[in-house]
Amino acid sequence: MRKALISISLALLGLFPVSAQSFSKILFNGKKEYAATEQALFINKKGKLDKIADFGSPANDAIIQDNLLWTATERGIITYSLADGKAVSQLLSDLDVTSLTKDSNGKIWASTKFSGIYKQSEKNDFTQVLSAGAGYVVCATPDGLVNAGTNLGLYSIRPDNTFIRYAEEAHSGYGLPDNYVEKLFSDHQSNLWIIMPDNIAFRKSGQMMGEMPSFAFVGSKENEIYNILNTGRSAFLFITREGVLLFPEASLAHEHQGGEVFNQENSPAFRLSADKLGTPKGERTASILNGAIHKNKLYLFNGTSLWAVNIPEIPKSGKLSGK
């Protein structure tokens, strides 16, 4: 009997892949800039990162609401004051929270490992909206949808809590290459990138059904995607373990399932140099862990520094520009 229980436990653990990268995220609140990691929150003061909070439980994700930092942890949601870094409250304390997002109305949503998807109904109250499968990630888009990545596919939840499910076995128009949706990245246009173990799919804003462009990997099969950003200039930035890649939006129309977003020999993407990224001197070998676009600037974080540069562009000549 004990052997059977161990087998079941290992099977459940196998639903959640181990990421090579610890959590990190760039956050903004008014004119202030923050970097959150698995263990702490830092504020950017004239190029220097000052720690303002140590987390009592490692963070899987973090967002800001009402001058509080909300962290997703295996002990629920723990909030911290941005003023003094002290813990303020603990919510959903009996759940393992994997991800947080804010919808178009400013409400917080949370995904949990085995207890579904929850939505904030009052400031300190959450209601279960979806109970399907193991929840890896939630990601809201400005069009009012909240997208949930699970081991049963992608759920796009409407404001009235009805949803569309995209899955490997779904009917025509709602298919995905894989049911395991591990990461989701959205942008100001409501485009959605869907990351699966061996596939990457792109759902264009407003396209709720139909074939999605999909790819096998970015850079190499072992590469990990940390974030995908829309430059607003007909290109996407891929923040990855193998570097930062600038990918022309037009390339999406020509890709197909099993293709590669980035290929060293014949690439539609540009790998950006440390000079182009404005990496601080003495930190050129440090990996970029995350990025964000805010007020027409590209912000980058490497675990030591947080800085802003001009958003790179791809001009008609095909040569890289940093203007």
TrEMBL record:
Superkingdom field: Bacteria
InterPro entries associated with the record: Reg_prop, WD40/YVTN_repeat-like_dom_sf
Keyword entries, A-Z: Signal
Signal peptide: 1-20
Signal found in the keyword field: yes
Presence of keyword Thylakoid: no
Protein name according to UniProt: Two component regulator propeller
Species of origin: Cruoricaptor ignavus
Lineage, uppermost ranks: Bacteria, Pseudomonadati, Bacteroidota, Flavobacteriia, Flavobacteriales
